[in-house]
Request: fold
Amino acid sequence: MKNIFNSLHTEEILERIDKLGPESKSEWGKMDVAQMLAHCSAFQDIAMGNSFPKRGWLGIVVGRFAKPIFYNDKPVAHNMSTIPTILITEGKEFETEREKLKQKIITFQKNGPEKCTTHPHAFFGKFTPEQWGKGIYKHLDHHLRQFGV
Reply:
């Protein structure tokens, strides 16, 4: 399983982000490319401990059983639900969002596993740094595939 803490995997993700353009079209979902980048950036904030979405009752009851979905080798299902606070519906500026996301990915990778949040994910609950690293890669990969890169 690829892990965002591996510099080669981070470089691959950054190169794929650079292949996106403001007119890139999604193969599924409702977000445009700038909204997707903002969504991924908001998700990085959670992993970095800069944002703390509250856990809902469904996540508390079911999340720990579904937790491996986040960091296993199986692709994420299309149109899977997301944390409501990081669902981006307003318009965003492509270049700004792309650069913001790239900088957050670079910072997260350079900070290393020891700087991961210990706050539980809003649905799945607590993750180890290793699980965060795999899950961040998987989340980014999912959305980059959504836009064909």
About this structure: The radius of gyration is 14 Å. The chain has a mean pLDDT of 95. The chain is about 50% helix and 0% strand.
